[in-house]
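Protocol step 6 of 9: fold each sequence in the batch and record its structure tokens directly after the sequence line. For illustration, a two-sequence batch is reproduced in full.

Sequence one:
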Amino acid sequence: MEDKKAYTEAASDSDTQDNSRRNFLKQSTLLTAIALTPGTAVKAAELRVDEKIASAFEKMPLKMEVNGVTHSLSVEPRATLLDILREQLDLTGTKKGCDHGQCGACTVHLDGQRINSCLTLGIMTSGKKVTTIEGLAKGEELHPMQEAF
């Protein structure tokens, strides 16, 4: 009988040690996996959170003329003209370069004046005429700027 009692106590101590070892291994494995997770995966998770926050913003109506065609859109107040042109109107000729207004890749004409579309909020262009690189051509004849590309 005493042998059974001693065996039960020894088994109980052994289980406790195994559990603590298992828990240690589980926790250390998890911490290692988190530490080795690439930054791109972390950024992707952050972007999903940003999208959820962005969806909470109320969209505003925007009416503007782009390359001679009038568009009525619903845009977020914080969306740039560049993002609206590329994502909602599928006009990808205007490029996102530095996103700081230094490179000029996002240049468009707004009522005949040259602007950086990455620095202009889309809602500020309401009722105005926007000309992108796609709108410079006269029919089938390319504009010299388009030919340069």
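Sequence two, same batch, same settings:
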Amino acid sequence: MSKPTSVEEDLKKSISYQERFGSTEYIFSSYKKLSLASIFDCIVVLDTNVLLIPYTLRSEDVVEIEKVYESLSKRDQLLLPEHVAREFAANKDKKLSELYKTVCDRNISILKIPEAAILKGTNEFKELEQQREQLESVAKSYNFSVKN
């Protein structure tokens, strides 16, 4: 008998999930029952993905996350498993590398203006050439900053 393909395996898993869970209404229903009092009694356990999210967020969002972590930490409701810390340490360089590549890909290139003899002598074309030179100068400075 041949080995099942990944599509067949996925189908079996999907059917198995349907058999195991039937209705999906109750899966998240317990979250609706959380009262404000029970929120202050819970422990929040961080996983690696949560620690890596700030590498893709805006600074305002990171500040908000910091506030939440600080609040949870002050109430002894924040737990960071050692395994998660190690996994984070193993993956953060990859995230930094991806971020660095994204920044480096933001270089600007200014296209040359096509040589057209009929336009060369006009005031509008001279103005366009001057604007392009200024733009190219700013782009070089920007690209230098991106590189750094």
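Proceed to step 7 once all outputs are recorded. Observation for sequence two: The beta strands are 44-45, 78-79.
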